[in-house]
């Protein structure tokens, strides 16, 4: 098989989205489901949220599987792989979306807080990618898409830990893209600006209004707008795009 050419049609491929029980992850799952793809909805604790996303995806005729795993654990990711292999749903497309944020002064950050944010955002991306990239290499085709953040590019005051984790994800993306390009596997990151999700729950109305005033587009992004870009990067015809950090941010950072 030629590198970068899939052995099966796009609509028959399988996508794994981590952290897909709500927000951007759920929107990504729903976007892929509209073409009838096999969709794996990963979650950690939000069982009902994952089921709600699954029900929404199944309305489009997609084959859907929900799966729980702590992505900070190599053992749990290995069990996740075994489950997907049992269902003949090893992914052609991996979307590393699972993440947590932290808001506060660096002087107040404990080691536990640091390890938690790094564990979910960065270690989880590393372990999940390492587990699922080998079948892509063997097939000489695959898509790895990491959901990063604008703060991983520009940094943000009072979000040092989160910015560091996402900056690491961006570097991981660029380096791995070079490593996997000869195998026909692309690796890209989507780094959104402010998105109207539960991650914004820590901001009050005045803080949200101030943020919107800073954005040339004058509003936050909707999750489905981010999902559309992830979907585009997963398409077979996007095979020459790799190692890129693309930031849909309404003109906030140019």
UniProtKB/TrEMBL annotation:
Instruction: Please give the start and end residues of each transmembrane region.
Output: none
Which residues, by range, are in coiled-coil regions? none
Would I find Oxidoreductase among this entry's keywords?
yes
UniProt keyword list: Oxidoreductase
What EC number(s) are associated with this protein in UniProt? 1.1.1.100
Q: What is the lineage of its organism?
A: Bacteria, Bacillati, Bacillota, Bacilli, Bacillales
Cross-referenced SUPFAM superfamilies:
NAD(P)-binding Rossmann-fold domains (SSF51735)
The name of this protein is 3-oxoacyl-[acyl-carrier-protein] reductase FabG
Keyword Methyltransferase carried by entry: no
Q: Which InterPro entries does its entry note? A: KR_dom, NAD(P)-bd_dom_sf, Sc_DH/Rdtase_CS, SDR, SDR_fam
Please tell me the species this chain comes from.
Paenibacillus konkukensis
Q: Which GO terms describe its molecular function?
A: 3-oxoacyl-[acyl-carrier-protein] reductase (NADPH) activity
